[in-house]
Amino acid sequence: YTVNGAVSGFGPLIVSTFGYTTLESILLQFPLGSIVLIFVLLTGYLSSRIRNINLILLVLCCLPVIAGCAMIWKSNWYPRAPTPVAGYTIIGFFGPVVFLIINIGMANVAGATKKSFTAAAIFVAYCVGNRSG
User: pLDDT value at position 3?
Assistant: First the structure.
């Protein structure tokens, strides 16, 4: 689950293929970044306050990403089409997923050293997946 490598690295290029200028493509990154910021903070707050909600939040954050990918894939790409841009924007729900996966992995391990190793191993696997995919 590493959709953010392409979105983070090539976001303006992806949006420009929908018929937007370079400046408009850069400006259209702000809604995606706002979604990432808001929902990383919200899921972090909720998971610290409500017990056993991490998996529910994980599934709820994965659904918009899947819907966004489907919107981009199945919509018509005529110049300045709103549907692929909306789909691209809701892909921003990938942000909380990364942190929730690390949090769930650490929650299932006892001991401070093992928790640190587990978090590092998950993060390394995440980075390798980002690099390769």
Answer: 62
57 closest CA partner among 118, 8, 102: 102
Residues 6+ apart with CB under 8 A from 91: 3, 7, 32, 64, 65, 68, 69, 72
| pLDDT, position 105 | 86
pTM > 0.85: no
Q: What are phi and psi of 30, to 5 degrees?
A: -65, -45
The per-residue DSSP string of 53-103 comes to -HHHHHHHHHHHHHHHHHHHHHS---TT-HHHHHHHHHGGGHHHHHHHHHH
